[in-house]
Amino acid sequence: MSLDHDLIGVRSDPVERSWDSTDAILYALGVGAGHDNPLEDLAYTTEHGAPGGEEQKVLPSYGVMLTWGVRGRRLGDFDPAMLVHAEQSVQLHRPLPTSGTVSITSMVTSIEDKGSGALVRSQAEAVLADSGEPLVTAGSGVFVRGEGGFGGERGAPSGDIVPERTPEERVETGSWPGQALLYRLSGDRNPLHSDPTFAARGGFSQPILHGLCTYGIACRVLVGAVAKGDGDAMRSMSGRFSAPVTPGDDLAVEIWDTDTGQVAFRVRRGDGTVVIDRGRATFAA
């Protein structure tokens, strides 16, 4: 079994993907919008938008799903149960429309040798199919256990990047036992999040929540706390997945102001374990 290192730097052929208002709503519901209070987040959970005439909006982290899974070739010949999502970033070149069609290309940018496994980094770009206007640039990293030790570069070490002080804001939220089954309908059908037998093969006692679902939960909280619910103000978001979340776990998003024009954030499980670290998000002034 091995990874295909010849993929590095090779851009895929364009793939088109379309979405509509229902897809955007399904995603918002999957990351918990309206779960605790159905009258909150109506701009994201209904086609009629929030009271007062506000039109439907799209959570900015949905931009990741518009590019998810687009790859010209398989990464290699290995047990897919050994693959876990390691990191994710998204850059929004303009607010996401409630419907549209994008043309997507992607490529593997690096494969780092981490000893116990390999970190495969990729980048995907989505442009509006009718105009070629850039919409989303997404970067992702997946860790493939057992595929390290090939003598490659380890990559630069990096620690957590949140300030060493109490966060300015801490928002408690949560997940629910069936959340992964709803979230997977937005495009990530990895059986690690639904099939107990597959999850056990990967070393988990039960299916775990998608890292991108936790990422979307964090995005929803950041939009509410930093931008007062206006997702169109978010410009970028990134983070590293440092521990799994089981559907039903309580979560808390810790937020710091920085002097760089960004906010830093970190997500913890109810037991205090950090599940997303190195979080950064930027918003329009």
Gyration radius, to the nearest Å? 18 Å
Count the beta strands. 12
Number of helices in the DSSP assignment? 6
The fraction of residues assigned to DSSP E strands is 25-35%
- The stretches of 5 or more residues where confidence is low (pLDDT under 50) are none
Structural class: alpha+beta
Order of helices and strands: EEHHHEEEEEEHHHEEEE
Lateral arrangement of strands in the main beta sheet: 2-5-6-7-4-9-12-11-10-8
Look at the structure and name the CATH superfamily: Hotdog Thioesterase
> pLDDT average, as an integer?
92
Q: Give the tally of structural domains.
A: 1
The residue fraction in helices comes out at: 10-25%
Chart the SSEs and their pairings.
Layout: E1 2-3, E2 15-19, H1 21-30, H2 42-45, H3 62-67, E3 76-77, E4 83-92, E5 100-113, E6 117-128, E7 134-145, E8 169-174, H4 179-183, H5 196-201, H6 211-226, E9 234-241, E10 250-257, E11 262-269, E12 274-283
Antiparallel strand pairs: 1-3, 2-5, 4-7, 4-9, 5-6, 6-7, 8-10, 9-12, 10-11, 11-12
